[in-house]
Specification:
Length: 756
């Protein structure tokens, strides 16, 4: 009891000291009391006094802190319903760092009761937003994580069991945002809605209040202004790139009205375009898709051409940033469709879609593109098989986009390294092939090519392709192809001549002749593929090349376009950049002044009639030649060949001789001179006269072409392998000629030469 007066005195003294000291302490504080970004949250600032004001934007205008987001979600309505799903698109603005609003459009499906039919809906909603993170910790535009709350109202237009209904209600949500880049964020949003609506049909009264719990994830862009927008952004007008782009994709397409699994079909597309600014581009696209018809087994092919305006949302909100990892484009345009067996009409329409991309490099990106098209009512009637209304189509495609860029500016050292590299190359490969139309059986393909890398990224290649399939009546062809090769690895990471693995894309055309039912019918087509090269040495690489081909032949037995898949395995030999020859080139060549040579060789051979028959009879051949090299590049040889063709179930036994003259071209010496080279690739082409011991045989003309792979041994001795193919007039080989026209013979000769 006696201590109370003392305690009161002490309390009064402390209060007086606090009152006297408080102004001085505050005068020394470097921060404002409500600067929670630096001082942290202080609950005393909000207790028993007027709350401190929230931070505000200076010179705030409508839409200057705009954001756009889109995502997908899953939902359940009560405890006894099937899961639902929806897609949503939102636009909003922050009035202050703490307070904001958004308006959303969504569409999807859900279930009222477990086991009941799904309801399809479209909705519009409006929400008030509050950033809890900014309220408690202050405004920080570079913050990685932000938590906001949302409350609002929603209206839905619903269709179930063929009856339309209306649904309305209120909702509340929490949204967690994770900043990926200055303008891009990821969000997750759990949401609780309380909904009520009109009678739906089917005996289910939906007037009573129903809860719906949903969980959404998505991407969003926030509009940057001032210094935040300029930081890290580039000036598009000063970029020297052409800003051309192209891409291809594959996916699925369907008639959206009366959707069912049977209506889904495969689709493929290709487009080209040009960026005119950091935000705007035009693109021209073609698409081919196969659609199902009203759940029937029947299918319909629809080709579509379109012209789209492309709006780059990423650049519009965050500035032009070539190194942006995620990108989002809005595509709107006009389209025209043509359907097979649909009265031959062209149907105009409109299309819209969104392209979400993931950048692999400044040039390459992967993308996913959902899209919707709407055409005139005639399309619904003639193509979709519906009478009345419109038949919108929907598709989702995934593919690869390439943007033409200033490679030298982005990888300045690549051209210096490329200038020191070997650019010409030879390729040799073999592999298995399979056709997916017609009864061709398994096939074997051989390819020999020559090409040049003319930029660090791009190469051209010319290839001789041979192919054979086993099934009767059999198939054999020889074609010449021209390919463009684009190094994906170089475009993504710059040129590196010592790279262990290099991945390239290949696209090309080919044409030639095939023997199938009738002899020597034309064959032509195109191919695309990938080329993976494993570096074995400075000059040698191991290649793996999967290819997809589309081929067409004419005449008897032709079956339209033939899709084919191949996997080729082989070697690539790099030769150099090319060197002119001086007057002493011959003396310093691998021949070392010894220009004359004689050769003997032998090996197995096959004729076109044997290859295309069920009986696989291997023939034998011998060859003797004498020749002379006039320069390190050019030579000539004269020879006599002997072929023994044993009897088979279809052909008689006979012996054939051939006298011929061949021109020799040393390809390796043509590309680059190397006095120490031991390995040579020599091309040959020639002609002559062939004759046989068959009854009624007469001398006939022949022509041949091939390659010789030669290796120099000591003492002026060379060894070689020589694959060569020739064509003989049927008059020289009666009984062997298909339809008495021509006979083809292929040989693989092994031999040796002596230079003198």
């Amino acid at each position: 009891m006696k201590r109370q007066p003392l305690n009161r005195v002490i309390s009064i003294v402390l209060l007086m000291v606090s009152a006297l000291c408080a102004p001085r302490v505050r005068a020394k504080m470097p921060f404002a009391l409500n600067d929670t970004a630096r001082t942290g949250m202080n609950g005393l600032d909000y207790v028993l006094q007027r709350p401190l004001g929230n931070p505000v934007f200076g010179h705030k205008r409508f839409g200057d802190h705009l954001f756009l987001s889109g995502g997908a979600g899953a939902s359940v309505m009560g405890l006894h319903s099937n899961p639902g799903a929806d897609l949503e698109l939102s636009v909003g603005d922050w009035i202050s760092p703490v307070h904001g609003w958004r308006v959303s459009l969504a569409g999807g499906l859900n279930s009222v009761n477990k086991g009941s039919e799904h309801s399809y809906f479209g909705s519009i909603s409006a929400d008030y937003l509050m950033s809890f993170t900014t309220l408690l910790r202050g405004y920080d535009p570079d913050r990685i994580f932000d938590l906001a709350g949302a409350v609002g109202a929603e209206y839905r237009r619903v269709r179930r069991t063929g009856v339309w209904g209306n649904v309305g209600g209120v909702r509340a949500a929490l949204q967690a945002r994770f900043q990926v880049s200055p303008s891009l964020y990821l969000y997750v949003e759990p949401r609780l809605s309380m909904l009520a609506g009109s009678y739906f049909g089917g005996g289910d009264d939906f007037r009573r209040l129903r809860p719906e719990l949903s969980f959404h994830v998505g991407l969003g862009y926030r509009l940057l202004r001032g210094a935040a927008r300029r930081a890290g952004a580039s000036d598009f007008l000063n970029v020297d790139d052409s800003n051309l782009f192209a891409g291809g994709a594959a996916g699925a397409a369907t008639f959206a009205r009366g959707f069912s699994r049977d209506k889904i079909g495969p689709a493929a597309s290709f487009y080209v375009g040009k960026w005119f600014s950091a935000v705007s581009a035009l693109r021209l696209k073609g698409e081919l898709a196969r659609y199902g018809l009203n759940g029937k087994p029947a299918r319909r092919y629809v080709a579509t051409a379109s012209l789209d305006y492309v709006w780059n949302i990423s650049s519009a909100f965050g500035g032009y940033r070539p190194d942006e990892v995620f990108g989002l484009n809005l595509n709107l345009g006009v389209a025209a469709a043509y359907g097979d067996n649909a009265k031959g009409k062209i149907y105009p329409g409109l299309e819209g879609g969104i392209t979400a991309s993931f950048s692999l490099s400044p040039n390459w990106s992967l993308f996913v593109e959902p899209q919707v098209r709407v055409f005139t009512p005639g399309f619904s009637r003639d193509v979709a098989g519906r009478w009345g209304g419109v038949a919108p189509t929907a598709s989702i495609m995934a593919g690869l986009n390439y943007t033409v860029g200033d490679f030298a500016r982005r990888f300045p050292r690549s051209y210096e390294d490329y200038g020191k590299s070997k650019r010409y190359f030879l390729s040799f490969s073999a592999g298995a092939g399979r056709r997916y139309r017609g009864d061709y059986g398994n096939g074997l393909a051989l390819a020999v090519g020559f090409g040049k890398r003319f930029t660090p990224v791009s190469s051209w290649r010319v290839t001789a392709d041979g192919e054979a399939f086993r099934r009767s009546p059999g198939y054999i062809s020889l074609a010449l192809s021209a390919d463009y090769i684009c190094s994906i690895s170089t475009s993504m990471a710059g040129f590196n001549d010592d790279r262990v693995f290099d991945l390239s894309g290949v696209i090309g055309v080919l044409g030639g002749a095939a023997n199938y039912v009738d002899p020597l019918k034309p064959v032509f087509g195109g191919r695309v593929g990938l080329l993976g090269a494993f570096r074995l040495s400075d000059a040698l690489s191991l290649n793996v090349e999967p290819q997809v081909l589309a081929l067409k032949t004419t005449g008897a037995g032709a079956t339209g376009w033939l899709p084919e898949f191949r996997v080729m395995l082989g070697l690539s030999y790099r030769l150099g950049r090319g060197t002119s020859f001086g007057k002493d080139a011959l003396d310093k060549s691998p021949m070392e002044g010894r220009r004359n040579f004689v050769s003997l060789s032998g090996g197995p051979s096959v004729t076109s009639s044997v290859v295309l028959s069920d009986s696989r009879v291997v023939n034998g051949a011998l060859s003797a030649v004498v020749g002379r090299w006039f320069t390190p590049v050019s030579g000539l040889r004269v020879g006599m060949d002997y072929d023994h063709l044993p009897a088979s179930a279809q052909t008689p036994k006979l012996n054939m001789g051939t006298a011929h003259v061949d021109y020799l071209l040393n390809v390796t010496s043509l590309i680059t001179r190397d006095s120490g080279r031991r390995f040579h690739v020599i091309g040959l082409v020639g002609g002559g006269v062939g004759f046989s011991d068959a009854e009624s045989s007469r001398a006939g003309l022949m022509a041949e072409a091939g390659l010789q792979f030669r290796y120099n041994l000591p003492k002026d001795i060379d060894v070689h392998i020589e694959p060569v193919a020739g064509v003989w007039s049927g008059r020289a080989l009666p009984g062997y000629a298909a339809h008495k026209n021509l006979v083809g013979i292929g040989r693989v000769m092994l031999g040796a030469s002596y230079r003198f």
